[in-house]
Structure formats: structure tokens, C-alpha cells
Design brief:
Blueprint (H helix, E strand, L loop, with lengths): L2 H16 L6 E2 L2 H13 L11 E8 L1 H9 L8 H8 L1 E6 L6 E5 L9 H26 L10 E4 L3 E8 L2 E8 L4 E7 L4 E9 L6 E10 L6 E13 L2 E11 L3 E13 L1
Length: about 260
């Protein structure tokens, strides 16, 4: 063997010996509880803060929605726009995953456009429901369970797996216990989402989810980007501006306003 291959081989052996193992290692059971408790304590928790529920009106950016669908902003005197802007959308939550969403129509949709109006409203309600399903585990203290199926230490942090068989959630955390990726697998949907948490005085707040969803293993993937800012309501931090972008489909933007809380 010439000198050059020998040098390369020695360097490779040295790097392998000095580098941390990339293979995930199970965290001992006696250490898991402390690790998980510490991780949970870093995230803002509305329940731990004393909140039982909240209610808000939702102000929809109809121009952004129509522009994303049709490529242009409709005129202000469009009957559909007037109908939608005159209607009232509100949401209330008891901090469970599914909120109560109410739509109160202002009169009736324009003639011959009833089906389009109903589809638009149903899509909007489903979007708002999807946002709360995605965000609430990070706000009610349930995202990181104290009794997961497994906790593994990796070279870059930890992987927490919860569930079994066809319903599995997997969280990827860095060494500071900040969640950077979420995987979910079930009979109905598979998701791979990168997560962004923003520090606040009261704990980490989920401000962005970006990734793909699939209805089945061999189905088409849909790219979704969700983001949120937060607002103070009394002593609590509640979602404020919401954005839900479904690639090549539509962009939903809204604000939660006139919020009240139940303690």
C-alpha cells in the first residue's frame, strides 16, 4: 500500500475513534422522567398558566385569499366579497385539540354562487380547525408526554417516540431540548414538519410549521406552511396573526381579535 492510502486510512480511523457515535442510544428509564420534565418546562403552557379557555373573533384577509386563488384582488363591490366581509367568524377553545368554530352569515350568498361560497366557508373553517389541531399540543402541555414509547439520545440531541403500530408521533429535539422536527404517522395521514419555536419571557412559543402531509403512503404530498404571532390577553399569550399556506392551492391569513379568556 502506498503512503497516500495509508495516511487516508489512518485519518479515517482517527476520526471514527474521536467522533461521537451516530447511532441513537436509549436513554435509561431513570433519566427519562427528568429529561422529559425539563423539556416540557421550557414550553409555554396555557393550562399551567391557569387558563381554562378563550374566545376570539376572526378577521379574515379576504384579499390575500382571493389573490392566492385567482391571481388578483376582486373589486370591493363584488357581491361575494361583500357577503363574506359582512359575515362573522369566531372561534372558542377549551384548550383541547378541536376548537368550536362559528360562522354567522350576513344574508345569503350571491345568486348562482352559493356552492362556491359554501366551499370557501367550509375550507376556511377546516383551515382554522387544522391550525388549532396543529398548535394546541404546544400550548396545552401535551406535545411532550411523560410516558413515551421510547427516548433515544443522538449525536445532535434526542428523539422521542410516542404511540405504536399505525399511529406514531416522533419529535426530534436538539441538545437544548428545543423541538426542530415532528413526524406523525397514522392510518389517515402522514406528516413531516420542521418546527420553529421562538423564545418568550414565559417560555418557547411555536411560531412556524413547515413541511408535507400525505393522505396515504403512495398519495401525493401537499406542502403546507403555517405560522403564527402571539398577543397578550390579560396575563396570557394567545395566537394573534395566523397564516396557512397550501402550496399551489391557497393562502389563508387572519387575525384573532377581541379575545376574552376563561380562568
Amino acid at each position: 500500500m502506498s503512503l497516500y492510502p495509508r495516511v487516508v486510512l489512518l485519518i479515517a480511523i482517527f476520526i471514527a475513534a474521536c467522533s461521537p457515535s451516530l447511532e441513537a442510544q436509549n436513554v435509561p428509564q431513570k433519566e427519562q422522567t427528568q429529561l422529559l420534565t425539563t423539556a416540557r418546562s421550557q414550553y409555554y403552557n396555557l393550562r399551567a398558566a391557569g387558563l381554562k379557555g378563550f374566545s376570539c373573533n376572526a378577521s379574515v384577509d379576504w384579499d390575500a385569499l382571493f389573490t392566492s386563488i385567482n391571481g388578483k384582488t376582486p373589486p370591493a363591490d363584488d357581491p361575494m366579497v361583500q357577503y363574506l366581509q359582512g359575515s362573522h367568524l369566531s372561534v372558542s377553545s377549551d384548550l383541547s385539540s378541536h376548537p368550536n368554530i362559528s360562522w354567522v352569515s350576513a344574508g345569503t350568498p350571491p345568486k348562482d354562487r352559493e356552492q362556491s361560497a359554501n366551499q370557501l366557508v367550509n375550507g376556511l373553517k377546516q383551515t382554522l380547525d387544522g391550525f388549532f389541531q396543529s398548535w394546541m399540543p404546544s400550548l396545552n402541555g401535551t406535545l411532550i408526554t411523560l410516558t413515551p414509547s421510547s427516548v433515544k439520545a443522538t449525536a445532535t440531541g434526542y428523539v422521542i417516540v410516542d404511540g405504536a403500530s399505525k399511529a406514531i408521533d416522533e419529535l426530534t429535539l436538539d441538545k437544548k431540548l428545543v423541538i426542530h422536527h415532528l413526524s406523525t404517522t397514522s392510518a389517515k395521514i402522514n406528516g413531516e414538519l420542521d418546527t420553529t419555536y421562538t423564545p418568550s419571557a414565559k417560555g418557547l412559543l411555536l411560531t412556524k410549521l413547515d413541511g408535507t402531509y400525505q393522505g396515504s403512503a403512495d398519495g401525493p404530498a401537499t406542502h403546507v406552511t403555517m405560522s403564527a404571532t402571539f398577543q397578550p390577553v390579560e396575563s396570557f399569550q394567545l395566537p394573534d396573526s395566523l397564516s396557512f399556506v397550501v402550496a399551489n392551492v391557497a393562502t389563508f391569513k387572519m387575525r384573532l381579535v377581541d379575545c376574552t379568556v376563561q380562568k
